[in-house]
Design goal:
With 348 residues, this protein is α/β, with parallel strands linked by helices. The protein has two domains: 49-128 and 230-347, 3-Layer(aba) Sandwich (D-Maltodextrin-Binding Protein, domain 2), CATH 3.40.190; 133-226, D-Maltodextrin-Binding Protein, domain 2. Helix content is 44%, strand content 18%. Strand 6 (149-153), helix 6 (159-170) and strand 7 (179-183) form a beta-alpha-beta unit. The N and C termini lie far apart (83 Å).
């Protein structure tokens, strides 16, 4: 006989179901256990940010910019960067009109414009020394032979102009008085002017000088050997753009820092990039260019500092009061390079 003190099996189940139903109703009424959320839909990859950047001459000081583009480093940073060759005299106007967002350009051009009222900022510098040699016509045997002769540069007030005015006095020559300085518009034009005999000297660097030497042109001074600090190639932008696009600016600087690291550890790739942009096929010339720029000129951390502008301020300040009294520290922002280095971007 069934023990009447124990509920029947069916009664047990009914009671369990009733308790469960009551508990469920109570939980619902009190906002109890939430219904599991549906898995989030896969988000689409954001479209790359389009950015335009300029460089002022086809020389190897721009190798970090080219490597960042060709190695896909800009793309990995979410940037679609369009590179444009803009001669130095037009580089700042292109920034100010918004045609380009970043300009890889001489520090002298930036200082001149900023002293004149342009609201610019420099976020990095890839060439902190003068990288040039003074190459001359075959009949020039010593520096004093240049008296009464012409020296070709790219543009007045640009890096080549400042470098010439720094170098000539060290050779016992007065710029403009002893040697006429002729602006040609670009480094390529200056080199062509020397090759044609229109001028008797120009500033050069590998591989351009190597192409001239077999024709009798020769180097009589090496400014690079002096290791003079300068802001030869900087990365500039308008302050409005940087302030309004700090994330984009940081990613851009990160890409340049990573590109420098890549070119230093991947010589074959860097040589291929130089070959493409310089349109040089001579292996010796390419290797000499790599050794000169990557080995001795381009720093691992592209900081830009106020003391790199000493020659610029002194030279341009002789004829421009606004430059002479300009506080260059107002246009320098090292925070982007510092952030990249602190995060180890230079070790990737």
């Amino acid at each position: 006989m069934r023990d009447l003190r124990r509920p029947a099996k069916g009664v047990k189940m009914q009671r369990a179901l009733s308790v469960g139903l009551v508990a469920s109703l109570l939980l619902t009424a009190c906002g109890g256990a939430p219904t599991p959320a549906a898995p989030p839909a896969a988000s689409a990859t954001p479209a790359p940010v389009k950015v335009s950047a300029s460089y002022s001459n086809v020389i190897a000081s721009n190798l970090p910019l080219w490597v960042a583009k060709e190695a896909g480093i800009f793309a990995r940073q979410g940037l679609d960067v369009e590179l444009t060759l803009v001669e130095s005299s037009k580089g700042i106007p292109a920034l100010l009109t918004g045609d380009v967002k970043f300009a890889h350009i001489g520090g002298s051009e930036v200082v001149s414009a900023a002293a004149g009222g342009a609201d610019l900022v420099i976020v990095g510098g890839t060439v902190p020394v003068w990288p040039y040699v003074l190459i001359v016509a075959p009949d020039i045997k010593k520096p004093e032979d240049l008296k009464g002769k012409k020296l070709a540069i790219a543009g007045i007030g640009g890096s080549y102009d400042i470098a010439a005015r720094v170098l000539l006095p060290r050779l016992g020559l007065k710029p403009d008085d002893d040697v006429a300085i002729i602006a040609t518009g670009s480094v390529a034009n200056a080199t062509a002017a020397l090759a044609s005999g229109a001028v008797q000297a120009t500033l050069s660097q590998p591989p351009d000088q190597l192409a001239l030497e077999p024709k009798g042109f020769h180097v009589i001074a090496n400014l690079a050997d002096l290791h003079l600090s300068t802001a030869n190639t900087t990365i500039a932008a308008t302050r409005a753009f940087v302030n309004g696009n700090r994330d984009v600016t940081q990613r851009y600087v990160d890409a340049i820092v990573e590109a420098i690291a890549r070119e230093k550890k991947d010589r074959p790739f860097a040589l291929d990039v130089l070959k493409t942009y310089l349109k040089v096929t001579d292996t010796n010339a390419l290797n000499a260019t790599y050794d000169h720029y990557v080995g001795t000129v381009i720093p691992s951390a592209p900081y830009v500092r106020a003391d790199q502008f000493g020659d610029v301020i002194q030279t341009l300040g002789r004829t421009n009061e606004k430059v002479r009294t300009f506080d260059v520290s107002k246009i320098l922002d090292e925070s982007f390079v510092k952030s990249a280095i602190d995060r180890g971007v230079d070790t990737r």
